[in-house]
């Protein structure tokens, strides 16, 4: 297959959150700045997906649509072939995005004022949807062992003894890029079972495990540990389909699945986007080779950044991600406050996600989106050098 990941696409003036809305979201003039913040990549979707969408658009009719057997079977086959996970079709519930589904589950499984656990540093939108639903976040900080992250299960058990009802788990983890082992996930699930905590596992990054690393779904847990489990999945991060807004929640517990479907119906979320279903189906059916090529390209970007930082900015420390295209870079060796660090980078024309946005444990870190052509990455590296050596 022809790989075109080096091609630079101009995303300005396309309504791109990442490229067009730095002013509205961050208060920054976006004309000359490289956005390395929002976690979508600057590559076109797989050719087979674009072809399927073009054919669907050519039909010209976009009435109410429903999931057909091809849609379900594409998901089932993908997880069996890619990850060795056997999914029952009855588990699959389709939602307009992972965050809306998690928010509804929080509403269903907890009451106002209840506690919800998340591991930190962690994806800020988990905190946002929890607190906007009038629930309290209980942070379970990850242990940072010289750049290698691991779970603090003793602390997690203390969190559970406080009466937490739900845990939001990021597998693989954003922002630190950790692909959790089966042993770690099993130990986590055992604790959830002991304290009767619902485990909501966001596995949207699972398809992007880097070469030499493996993603382990929580669905590989023993059946006895699946009855308090929900796994959220999507083709969006994998294939660049985020704005098409479609995800799948895999729920082995039939009673919870039925209650969740009722909740979706109560919100009028029982009609599906025909283009989103078309794109996801085509991606799962046709694009495994494309994904393998993408992951090799992303690994190349990761290697370039690691070499650059080691040679040019040795005060910064970088543990390459095991999954995903996000670089979690430790800038604490510079001795700068978060505000000063951000100002230096922005003034040099590079816009990262600041680590402090992922919790206090992220202070002194930045998250860089490496899902871009090499030309963009090399320019970003030069701007970092300008920012942090002056």
Strand elements, count: 14
Radius of gyration: 21 Å
**Weakly predicted, low-confidence segments:** none
Give the biggest beta sheet.
Answer: 7 strands, mixed
- The topology string of helices and strands comes to HHEHHEHEHEEEHEHEEHEHHHEEHEEH
Please state the overall shape, judged from the principal axes of the Cα atoms.
globular
Our count of domains comes out at 2
Secondary structural class: alpha/beta
Distance between the termini: 44 Å
CATH class of the largest domain: Alpha Beta
Order of adjacent strands in the largest pleated sheet: 2-10-9-8-7-3-4
Discrete helix count: 14
| The CATH superfamily title of the largest domain | Type I PLP-dependent aspartate aminotransferase-like (Major domain)
CATH fold annotation of the largest domain: Aspartate Aminotransferase, domain 2
Oligomer: single chain
Portion in beta strands: 15-25%
GO molecular function, one term: transaminase activity
Cofactor: pyridoxal 5'-phosphate
Family: Belongs to the class-II pyridoxal-phosphate-dependent aminotransferase family. MalY/PatB cystathionine beta-lyase subfamily.
EC number: 4.4.1.13
What is this structure, in a nutshell?
With 390 residues, the protein is an alpha/beta fold. It is built from 14 helices and 14 strands. Strands 2-10-9-8-7-3-4 form a seven-stranded mixed β-sheet, sandwiched between helices.
Short key terms for the protein model shown above:
2 domains; alpha/beta; Aspartate Aminotransferase, domain 2; seven-stranded mixed beta sheet; Aspartate Aminotransferase, domain 1; 390 residues; five-stranded mixed beta sheet
